[in-house]
TrEMBL record:
The organism's taxonomic lineage, starting at the top: Bacteria, Bacillati, Actinomycetota, Actinomycetes, Pseudonocardiales
Keywords of this entry: Heme, Iron, Metal-binding, Monooxygenase, Oxidoreductase
Xref: CDD domains: CYP105-like
PROSITE patterns named in the record: CYTOCHROME_P450
Disordered: region residues: 1-23
Protein name: Cytochrome P450
Single GO MF descriptor: oxidoreductase activity
Source species: Amycolatopsis albidoflavus
EC number: 1.14.-.-
Length: 393
């Protein structure tokens, strides 16, 4: 079967929270065309996606012939810098063993008071400022930046620098030159922090005894970008969903897992390459053929999630694959869950009158970036009576 549709595909503007129609209206296993003319297999069904993510005959190594690069930037960057996300065992196993103890549920739970303090501080500032406000700039972007900087030991005073680098790295630019230069600039910055012991107490300093400054810098770039941009996107996009479902915004149940299932923020999905012949969904896939496992459609599979296009915060949704599955399950998932739970809960508790400042169809979405979200999220709220003010608990 020859791929006739180019991946990634455009979303339907009238349904901005749903996967692209071109992903859902196709067979569970089919060919798709990439920018370079290659035709990897697109896997869309929940059980098949999990099978792909767990199969040891399928590799994440970007250097393997046939690996599906979704744009020139990712191909050029992957050729220059190999991170944990592009490693197979035993290299992946060894590096993950070093990092896993730093991202346990217990350690992330211990961060709750500090994250709550940061959330309240940002909301204090937003509520004291202009109304309406941009929730992305006032809250969604700075929160994960503050958290990941503290965790890694990167001075928050340098946030403008790494946020600018992050924006360059995640944009789908046909010319990889800017992204490669930005990536190298961030690597040099992080390497200097470690080598000169200028990093504040945190993960980068802890790793200095086990890894070279360059290896720590590459790993730090992955954690800094992934730990900041993905969570910022989910806070903003998730809040937009909640505000378009006001009855569920007012419900005090935790919406985090359903939002993770309902939304899909990664345009490029989970990319792999077969290193041996295998069968997925009844289709023979040969060694050397690329594979794209589509987590967004897996999370909308009616066999796994009945009535999947309905947003329902009471749905048992924790078996979603938003964080992946198998040995490459997102290392930072415990941290992301804590940040999202606190962010959504505090917004609903402290600003129960929060509402979109513009109609949904006027929001501008990031269609040309690796991580899908809103560029701005104008919000408004009812001012408290004169003489009172929001109080943090």
């Amino acid at each position: 079967m020859t791929g006739s549709e180019t991946f990634p595909m455009a979303r339907e503007p009238r349904c901005p929270f749903a996967p692209a129609p071109g992903l859902t209206a196709r067979p569970p296993v089919s060919r798709v065309r990439l920018w370079d003319g290659s035709e990897p297999w697109l896997i869309t069904r929940y059980t098949d996606v999990r099978a792909v993510l767990a199969d040891p005959r399928i590799s994440v190594d970007v250097a393997q012939p046939g690996f599906p690069h979704t744009n020139p930037v990712s191909k050029a960057r992957d050729a220059r810098m190999k991170t944990l996300m592009q490693m197979d065992p035993p290299e992946h196993t060894a590096q993950r063993r070093i990092l896993a103890p730093e991202f346990t549920v217990r350690k992330m739970t211990a961060l709750r008071p500090r994250i709550q303090q940061l959330v309240d501080g940002l909301l204090d500032a937003m509520l004291a400022g202009p109304n309406p406000a941009d929730l992305v700039e006032a809250f969604a972007l700075p929160l994960p930046s503050l958290v990941i900087c503290a965790l890694l030991g990167v001075p928050y005073a340098d946030r403008d620098f790494f946020q600018g680098v992050a924006r360059t790295l995640v944009m789908d630019d046909p010319d990889p030159t800017r992204a490669l230069a930005a990536s190298e600039e961030l690597n040099s910055y992080l390497e200097h922090l470690v080598a000169t012991k200028a990093a504040e107490p945190g993960l980068l300093s802890k790793l200095a005894a086990e890894m070279s400054p360059r290896s720590i810098a590459v790993l730090g770039q992955l954690l800094l970008i992934a730990g900041h941009d993905t969570t910022a996107a989910m806070i903003a996009l998730g809040t937009a969903v909640l505000l378009t479902h006001p009855e569920q915004f007012r419900d005090l149940s935790d919406p985090t897992e359903e939002l993770l299932r309902y939304l899909s923020i990664t345009h490029t999905e989970a990319r792999r390459v077969a290193v041996a012949d295998l069968e997925i969904g009844g289709q023979l896939i040969r060694a050397g053929e690329g594979i794209i496992a589509v987590k967004s459609t897996a999370n909308r599979d009616p066999l796994a999630f009945p009535d999947p296009d309905r947003f329902d915060i009471h749905r048992p949704a924790r078996h979603h694959v938003a964080f992946g599955y198998g040995r490459h399950l997102c290392l930072g998932a415990p941290l992301a869950r804590v940040e999202l739970e606190i962010a959504y809960a505090t917004l609903r508790r402290r600003v129960p009158t929060l509402a979109l400042g513009v109609p949904l169809d006027r929001l501008e979405f990031k269609e040309n970036a690796i991580f899908y979200s809103v560029r701005e999220l104008p919000v408004t709220w009812a001012r408290p009576p004169t003489g009172s003010s929001p109080v943090s608990e």
